[in-house]
Write a structure and sequence with these properties.
- The chain has 9 helices and no strands.
- With 199 residues, the protein is mostly helical.
- It is elongated, with a radius of gyration of 19 Å.
């Protein structure tokens, strides 16, 4: 939505361009009633975090942007189904995560995380050998992440990179907390084994 629509929504919801103190659930109710300005505030408020999540899961920025855009389109259509049993952000995490999982499943084996921008080899002032070693470790980590199942990768990214609780991940991914713990444990074990030479 255009910036002027977002600015107009600010006055409509009684706050700044991000909706001020207006609660997500109230904005979602207004959006479900057809208020595009309220939805624009929700998009502006949550898009950055969702794009980071999608980029970490998929590994390619352009695909991540498409996934998030598709997720917001889907959310707009499905807003009447949102009854506030969970937070709007959790609902959106679930939609984005499921979209990313579908993309990952359809392109197995996964493509590298080169575009994710989250893993960088540190630039040392030390010897070229040390720099090459660090870059090798980063390549190994990327390859190890690519070898995880889409579900393990999603749970690990939400837990380790986003710092989400097991309860949040379970709600976002649509599985039990025990299943989340098991997937995170298996992902950690796989990564530890794959990167054993670098420890």
């Amino acid at each position: 939505m255009r910036d002027d629509a977002v600015d107009a929504s600010a006055s409509a919801v009684g706050g700044d361009a991000e909706g001020g103190d207006v609660d997500d659930s109230l904005l979602a109710v207004r959006a479900a009633e057809g208020d595009e300005d309220a939805f624009a505030v929700l998009v502006q408020r949550h898009a950055p975090a969702l794009l980071r999540l999608a980029t970490r899961l998929i590994g390619e920025r352009s695909e991540a942007e498409d996934a998030v855009q598709d997720a917001f389109i889907s959310a707009w259509r499905r807003l009447p189904e949102f009854h506030g049993r969970s937070a709007f952000s959790t609902w959106m995490y679930r939609i984005v995560t499921n979209r990313c999982l579908n993309i990952l499943r359809s392109r197995r084996p996964s493509s590298p995380l080169e575009a994710a921008g989250e893993i960088h080899a540190p630039e040392y002032t030390a010897s070229p050998a040390r720099i090459a070693e660090a870059r090798g470790a980063v390549r190994e980590l990327r390859a190890a992440l690519d070898d995880l199942s889409p579900e393990q990768r999603a749970c690990w990214v939400l837990r380790e990179w986003d710092g989400q609780s097991y309860e949040f991940i379970a709600d976002a991914v649509g599985i039990s907390q025990e299943a989340v713990r098991a997937r995170v444990f298996r992902a950690r074990r796989s990564l530890t084994q794959a990167l054993g030479a670098w420890r």
